[in-house]
Amino acid sequence: MGYFSPPPGIYLIWAYVPDEVLHSLGITYYPSRYWALAIPVWIMTLVWFVFISFMSINLMNTAPFDSFTCITDEHANVLTSAPSQKDHPEDYIPELHDIPISVVNAMLYQDEAEEGLSDQAFVEAHSMTHDAEEWPLFGNFSLGS
Fold first, then answer.
1. Confidence (pLDDT) at 123
2. What pLDDT does residue 56 have?
3. Contact, 141 vs 133, CB < 8 A?
4. Which of the listed residues 3, 25, 32, 118 has the most CB atoms within 10 Å of its CB?
5. What would the mean pLDDT of 31-53 be, rounded to a whole number?
6. How far apart, in whole angstroms, are the C-alpha atoms of residue 137 and residue 92?
7. Are the CB atoms for 14 and 30 separated by under 8 Å?
């Protein structure tokens, strides 16, 4: 048999044992049975309120998708050139870097840009990613057909 805590046990006895049994045991002064249901409902309502409130506050404090702060900030560690693989063991893990948004857009929207929907950012990213085929950070990929 496991550990039995008195407060939950007393609560369960008060909530489920009929009044006649409690009176026969000499227990005549106890709260209304309304509270046996009301208190757990209030607690669960409070839990949901706190959960929804925190989620709402976080959503209100999140920058919009078109904000520049969603793309980069002063703490970004952007990779500007291909990392050197010389003087490193075969299982070397390179330093973590942020991928520039222009490279991400070039990889995601390459087909649309080649069909005439390109902008200056794609052109710059395309020229930057020609050397990226050799970058192990981005894996093996092809930029052209």
1. 53
2. 97
3. yes
4. 118
5. 95
6. 12
7. yes
d(CA 115, CA 139): 25
Extract the tokens encoding 75.
Answer: 């703490």
Contact 98, 80 (CB under 8 A): no
Number of other residues whose CB lies within 10 A of the CB of residue 102: 19
Length of the chain: 145
Residue 133 has phi, psi (to 5 degrees) of: -60, -25
Q: For residue 55, how far is the Cα from the chain centroid?
A: 11
Q: What number of other Cβ atoms are within 10 A of residue 69's Cβ? A: 10
3-state secondary structure of 94: coil
pLDDT of residue 125: 53
pTM confidence score: 0.46
What are 88's two structure tokens? 């490193």
Distance CA 39, CA 45 (A): 10
Return the closest-CA partner of residue 114 out of 142, 138, 137: 142
Q: Model confidence over 56-72: pLDDT tens digits?
A: 999 999 888 777 777 77
Q: Which structure tokens are listed for 93?
A: 């893990």
Sign of CA dihedral 98, 104, 105, 106: positive
Q: Cα 5–7–12 angle (5° rounding)?
A: 100
